[in-house]
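Hey team,

Filing this mostly as a record. A colleague (T.K.) asked me to run one chain through the structure pipeline before their review meeting, and I want the input and output archived in the tracker in case anyone asks later how it was produced. No errors, nothing strange. Just documentation.

Input sequence:
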Amino acid sequence: MANFRIILLALLLISSSTASMAQMPFSPGGMGGMGGMGGMGGIGGMGTPGIGGGTTTNRPPRNPHKPTSLDDLFKHTDLPEVILPTLLLGKRDWAPFDDAAQQALMKGYFVVINDEKVKDFAQLYKMNAEEGKPSFITVDSVIHPLLAYRNAVKIKIIEQLCTPRLLHLLLAMIKSSIADYREAEDPSVKDDVQRNLAYLAIAVKLLAPNTKLPDFGGVQELIDRSLADITSEKFDQSKPAELAVFQPIGWYTGKDSLKRYYRCRQWLGRTSFLLSDVNNDTENSNGNEFRRSVLLYRSLINAKLADTRGFDLWMQLCQTLNLLDDEHLYSNYLLANDFKSVLNPASAGPQAEYNMDERISLKGLSQPLTRAKVLLALKAEHNRLMSRSIFELDPKARRENESLSFRFFPPCPLIESEWLVSQSPTGEVFTGMPFSLLFLHSRRSVEADNVLSDNTTRLDEGLCKSLPVLDRVLYDEDQLESPSSIWPALRGGWKQPPEMAQLVLRTELWQMHALETSLGSWVDDWLAVAPADQPVSASGSTSAATSSDNTKADNSVKNAMASQAVRKPSRFNYLEPAFEVYKQFNKSLTDWQAALTKLGMFPDEFRGRTEDFARLMQRLSNIARKELGGQPFTASDAELLANFDTVLDKVAAPMVGNMYFAFGPPMPEASSKKPEKAAAPPVAKLVARNKPATTLEKPPAEKPEEDKMKAAIAAAGQDSPPANISGINLGLGTPATIYVVLRTPRGPIVCRGAVYSYFEIHDQPITYDHWVRNFDYGFFHPPFWCASYHLANSAIATKKQEPLH
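Output structure:
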């Protein structure tokens, strides 16, 4: 009777899973399916102990209400209103700005201008120190070198530790799988082992193309074809959108070794094996995906390496990847450690071989009843898994993605990009939408919601259905964030300052500027890398930060100043008091280094510099707390701010760059007529509730000489991708200059600082050379919602700056 119940349950499982069989998008002839592309990366097994490294975020509960309109989706929140007294500049000659910049400064107490003379953050603050101008030390100037340094550490870990260890693990698994192939007697088991060999061979060839592998017989052609598709550098709309996940982005494009690692990582993390015990042995099928997942687990358990066991090395790599990724989300898949918790193979000691569970012996895997018992055990153990990241709106695709699956690694997620791929352009309203604000909405930015609610005429009603999907993925109350994530710190910058803070920092306009800082930091986290020749030893401290004692002047600042030209720093300098930002970065950096050190995966040569950055964040958080509380500075604090350029100069890193996010394929049209190029988006109208409307002016018409320059840029650049690809380019230019009016006992004074120049360009993919040239020629304009304070190309007079009266 018991056996009858087991067989009945097995049949029910099989019948419910048959419809969920997912094929590889490029017909890989029976290799691991790429089903569940929407299943975003994360910790397998709902936070299985040993892989997670994050901490649960304290967020408001998710609103289960489904929006029915754009007004319902983007709720407006009234923020405390701050009235700024009108500035009387007096004679126009006192102001170093043109009319537009002067008006923006008088109304909002700050203005952002792109100055072609400023090439990096340190340069601007050095100019201030040499010219005697008061500095406004921005949070942007602090975040950029930190992110660049952190990415340099990640690259070192990937190249020197992860890549060679992963290659050794894959080769050991191939050897183990070959042994299983020779031992297996059942032809269907042999076929599944052969498919797994092809899967592992592709991973090896992606990671180390020159590695020699055995001839795998009939699947060699399949391996070659799959490798050609994955490694293609060209955009091809005729191929499935899933292939876009193999295109390296950001700093992964900087070296061939990083490109290879990225593609291998995505292959191992994106290929899913549905836990569905269905035999499909046709030529272009995936075989029995459940059995293949167990066979992969077998090869991992049986893998033999010189100094460790295969599973232990996999566990170390999986934990490391979790710490290198900025985000990881729960999803409906299992990892090898989830299999181990159910199958529970015992071992005699750390270096001893695991005793193989009889249920997953080659003979057992050839028997349907035994496989059914294992499948039932896995699903019973993990029945709490739920799908939380289904980007496809099609009901059939949703049902397929809700099926439980196995993956070798968690995927490397860039959630916003994958959501965009699931969207289909429907006209100029779509291509003119402020997608960066939509991303911030999904991360629960109140100010982003306010801007969007005032601009619903620019938005597509389809967002009411598609955007809540992104909301659920990016903002889940049970989500874990990696210590590498920058979002806990960036969210700290969205908090309303106390009443003791400077007036300008409490305005709604400044809150909009904080959004631009968040977006610039997010893009910068994917682009910035510290130069390879930048010193990283602890012997020459570069942070200008003492320990917790802020009363001692730092010797590194004095030593750096000794070699400087004549300096006359202003007696008034101000740090942007983003207390929570500095505090969170200090915590995340400390936790990140500690977790990687515990795994034995943190390079020793970076330890001193990491501690320097952590102390600097702590020092700045203490200064910010004093500013917000109206407390006086110590002499050491004042010296640090006055000579902050000497700190930034030692950690300077390039900033200009961009990354491209593609939309999904366009919606099919009734006729076959080639669609015309979308017209420019309409003039943006910012309509604030209970306030007079403000219309943003159209950018000036291009002059004939500008048309010639654009043609020259196009002729000098690289070959552009096909014109039928559409998407957005998110990127940065050189730092912009911000002028801020601050109150002092002697009256208002204008301070100067440096901030991110963030741009969102709806266009075809723009190469790096094109991006730099377009920025240098002033063809880029800030997002429409920044236009009231960010004047991209406003002229600055060269006259000496005078204090405001």
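Quick notes for T.K.: The chain has 29 helices and 16 strands. Residues 33 and 568 are 65 Å apart (CA to CA).
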